[in-house]
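Schema walk-through. Below, the input block comes first and the output block second. Nothing else is stored per chain. Lengths vary across the set, and this one has 226 residues.
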Amino acid sequence: MILTNDDGYRAPGIAALRRAVERLALDHAVVAPAEAVSGCGHAVTTHAPLRSRPENAGGWSVEGTPADCVRLALHKFVPDAKWVVSGINAGGNLGVDLFHSGTVAAVREAVFHGHKGVAFSHYIAKDFRIDWNRASDWTAVILEDLLSRELPPRSFWNVNFPCVDTQAPMPEIVFCPWDRSPLPLQYRFDEGEARYEGVYHERNREPDHDVSVCFGGRIAVSLVTL
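--- output ---
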């Protein structure tokens, strides 16, 4: 199993993901970007060298994108891996976020090559701080379930954790479609510069799709087919 992300090799989210995988006693290796490259989408490096270095516990950091990390891992570092698990991203990857998310792109790249994958993200509302230990516990529960399920060809799972009170029990897990609603187009123009001012939480949403499920305090699990 390959673990990766787009927040960087030393991000708390991938440490939480690793704890969840270790709790399930799954063989794994971390191959992740050396630095944060959030929002890079499915960018890959083809016209410049990719520098990588070994890290503690048999992992590798790569000066590249999440998709680069998966390509190198499958070609060289962990060629016998069956699954790629990406995250836990600090921020939601819901609906059309699928297209600009580096977290999700890592899993999509794996699926292109015939492997299976799961992307984990944690929505962050204003003034909310992620409890990474709790997120790790939720990840272990959901990952164990998803690994036991039949995954259709050219498909992967996209999981988003909601913001809930620190004393609340584990939220309900809802299997739901992903929302096709576009993100808000709101910009402020000043002296030839445009600054995006769309509010993530105010995005359009379809009932019972991943955005509304997650914003409503439940864990959204969506099957994405290429």
